[in-house]
Specification:
The chain has 219 residues and is mainly α. Helices cover 84% and strands 0% of the residues.
Length: 219
């Protein structure tokens, strides 16, 4: 008996609609049996059987209507969930593509800055990298492709901020450097070339010794 009640509670928790349907069917069947038992002493067996058949037909029709309502409700719930998952999927793809696009644009302007030493190009590179970051931060970081793009975007933005070397960028640049450094073990191919170089560069620019010279020159 204890096992029966335990399984009943499990069914109610895991499948509430199925549990409700079973309860309704049991009630309908119980009402039918009750009405039949009530009529048996006063009527012939054939008449009682006819009454039982009519009541059973009504109960089955009621159960069918109830099942139809539950089926439609389940359909609507599944439909809404599917629409939400589809919307999330395409939103994720859109954010991914825009993050990569703006990251590429920012890198192009940074190359122009390196060649010309025109700080206007560096400012544009930082602006575009921030746009890339605004898209990449919405991606699901549990997906390694998304996470790699997120860190690539931070890597660019961190390097550009360190290249500009403004005092007000210090906390942001070092925060990005710490995030990059934390994720290097997940992508060992990035360690020797890109990400570790950015971490080292940002920490060097914003070290206490460098700050004294750099920020004094800016003032």
């Amino acid at each position: 008996m204890e096992k029966f009640f335990s399984e009943t509670r499990h069914l109610k928790e895991k499948h509430p609609r199925v549990h409700l349907l079973i309860v309704v069917l049991v009630i309908c069947f119980s009402v039918s049996i009750g009405m039949l038992i009530r009529d048996v002493p006063h009527t012939s067996f054939g008449h009682s059987l006819s009454v039982f058949r009519d009541i059973l037909a009504i109960n089955l029709a009621t159960a069918g209507l109830f099942i139809s309502v539950l089926s439609y409700s389940a359909y609507r719930i599944l439909s809404i969930r599917l629409e939400q998952k589809t919307a999330d999927f395409f939103r994720n793809k859109e954010d991914f593509l825009f993050a990569r696009l703006f990251s590429s644009i920012s890198f192009t302007h940074y190359i122009e800055y390196e060649l010309s030493k025109n700080f206007d190009y560096l400012e544009v590179a930082i602006l575009q990298a921030k746009k890339a970051h605004s898209f990449s931060r919405h991606l699901d970081s549990h997906d390694l492709d998304n996470l790699e793009l997120q860190i690539d975007v931070l890597n660019n933005l961190c390097y550009y901020l360190a290249s500009r070397g403004k005092k007000e960028d210090r906390d942001t640049a070092l925060e990005y450097a710490n995030v990059i450094n934390k994720n290097i073990p997940l992508f060992p191919e990035k360690e020797d070339v890109l990400w570790l170089d950015t971490v080292t560069f940002a920490r060097k620019v914003y070290s206490k010794e460098t700050q004294k010279t750099l920020f004094t020159d800016q003032e």
